[in-house]
Design a protein that fits this description.
It is a single chain. The chain is mostly helical and 422 residues long. 55% of the residues lie in helices and 4% in strands. Strands 1-4 form a two-stranded antiparallel ribbon.
Length: 422
Amino acid sequence: MAVRHPLLLASALIFAWSVRSNADWALLSTGGRGLFSSSPTSVYAKTPGLQAGPPSLVVVRLVNLLPGSAGEWMAHILLAFLGWYLIYLVERWTVAGSTWRQAPLRAGLTTLVVGLLVLEQWAWLAGETPHVEDGLAILTFVLALRALVDRRELAAALLVGLTVAWKPWAVAALPLLWGCSHKAKALLIGVAIPAACWLPFFIGNHGTFSTVGYAFALRTDSPLRVLGLSGGVIPDWWRTVELVGVLVGAALAARRDWRVAFAAGCALRLLLDPASFRYYYGGLIMVVFLTERLVGAKPWRTAGLFVTAVYIPHLIAVPGATYFQITGLAAVFLSWAQPWRRAGGAHGIADARATAAPELVPVPREGEPESQPASSPRAHPEQRPTIERNGPIRRAAPSLDLEKGTELTMSGPEVGSSKEPR
């Protein structure tokens, strides 16, 4: 499978270029210029509908330093490259022995086939509407999840805070911090970063509050319209309801398993949004696909989204297609949140609650001595999440205090398993 990643990268660029448009780029560019104007704290008050966070506007401004329309072209290229890179990165983390050119046949074929389908939908975000802030939020979410599993809690908290700062809907990333051993400290950092980014604008111009309550158009294909909300625009207070709902939904998923909180929150966000743009689903499909692969779950949620949100809307008209979209989104959210069941799952770095007796296999790194047996004086009952350099991010389980450099692999119930923790 030596050609899988060159083919995926080339396809990502071709897909994005085939649907390229400057939709919303002018709005982002206006915000980027306003941030570096004589009245930077008024940029949101003067640009209704601008939802990108301040760090995103800095990135947009840097990209637009290129002459002419080269900045917009570069945004398309960078987002297409990012889509491929996320797939490549997660494969390196989860498939043993995978490199740029090599991978086990079955895993390589999965990456190639599913990756092509995911990138074809990602093209709507990278090509049609180059929302760099959405891409950056997904990137920092993936890096934060990996940092948590590697027990780098400070880095994880900083990355989660940056994720939320890129764009308001990324507030769904905050419940990831339930995986930290020092939850209050991590949450404080995760909230402080976006607060520090936004606070100068709220203080500098109170009109910034109108950004949160901006009356967006209620599109005919929006799930909200099918669920009963009517009118040409959403109420001023609805965006606040949407963001609070996303946070609560992600928290519900985190009480079951913090690793899937962000994906569950993103699915709920589309159920509560007044629009149903194709790039929304392109981003969501990427998030769900990456999450399923990172946690070792079967990709039925990704497949379900392709059927209900991509293929069926091509066959039937609104509102019939919207009902299928609602079904797919609700299935993704409920399968991870499972609000009817009690809390359990992968809770954190030093949480003593673990899944039922999974098997642990100490695997020393190449060139290092074998780890001490369980009867060693170094053994202790502390429970930690197990880490695999090449494998899914697993649930917490009883572990040994192994020699430095020793990695742990385990087999245990898959995400969404019906087995309850003891």
